[in-house]
Fold:
Amino acid sequence: MGFEMNAMRHATGRASAQSGPSVPEPGEAAIDFTRLFIAEVFTPLFHTRIYAGLPGAVRLRYNQLHALYFNEQIAFFEQGILSPFLLALLRRSPPVDLEKGLRVFFAEEQRHTAQFRELNLRCAPELYEGGERYFVSAPRALDAAISAAAAQPFLFPLLIWLTLLQEERSLYWSRGCLEHASELEPHFVATHRAHLADEIGHVRWDEDLLDWLWPRVGPAMRRLHAWLLRWMLGEYFLLPKRSSRRVIRQLVAEYPFLDRQPLDREMDGLKSNPAFLATLYSREVTPRAYARFAQHPEFAVLADILPALDRIYAAGFPS
Structure:
């Protein structure tokens, strides 16, 4: 019980100052706003025809704003879905070895969230002094519904599939940012390096959770959860929609000479852009998830939204 009470204080941002993110020491290097914050290939506009024609300062600022949004997205997923999901699992007496891993998993997610939020606040206090989310926005009813679902892991085991996809994508993106480290802002490089070190273990625990949870789900419920996962990916995770458009709105607010309509049209076209889609949930980005999907015919419903999954299913299922 003591662990859960302390964990919930962390998850809701009420932890003590000693357990919170570190305060930069005097003399610590300032954020370098002359550099990219994230590898360009991971930003939607980079894959559009209009991007190369934008002024360099606009491309740089777009990259920085999108990186802030990406940090928000990670923190939102970790606190809105993953943390309550892990806490609920710990209350269900998982196998001893898995329980130990889940406690470490949870603690590391709290550290990640603190790091990403602290970095965003340092980079854009004018955006984050009023709260931890500026680009990621959801109605209160939806936030409440997500939290309620995350607190019922045996009723909503699809969330561990979503977690595996998100953790693998985050792992791939962190590796990609480290490959471009010489081009990127050092604080962001350091944050991705720390994140990468933990995410490798998280993917393993995700798979352990699937081995524990998914066999308990009956065939009809498996099909239902596969459809729910398909809907969630398409509505909130696959293509740039609400939050990514808020990044565009902020960019236009900072550079009023920009015409927002062409930018929005280019974003709309990304749904048929193979290079962009390959950076999301392709077989290269999320190999463990694809390997797992291939073992379960119920996930054939994802074949039209996940690249290459249709070819995997065409090859048949293991007996």
In short: The two ends are 43 Å apart (CA to CA). The domain at 2-6+36-265 is CATH 1.10.620.20 (Ribonucleotide Reductase, subunit A).
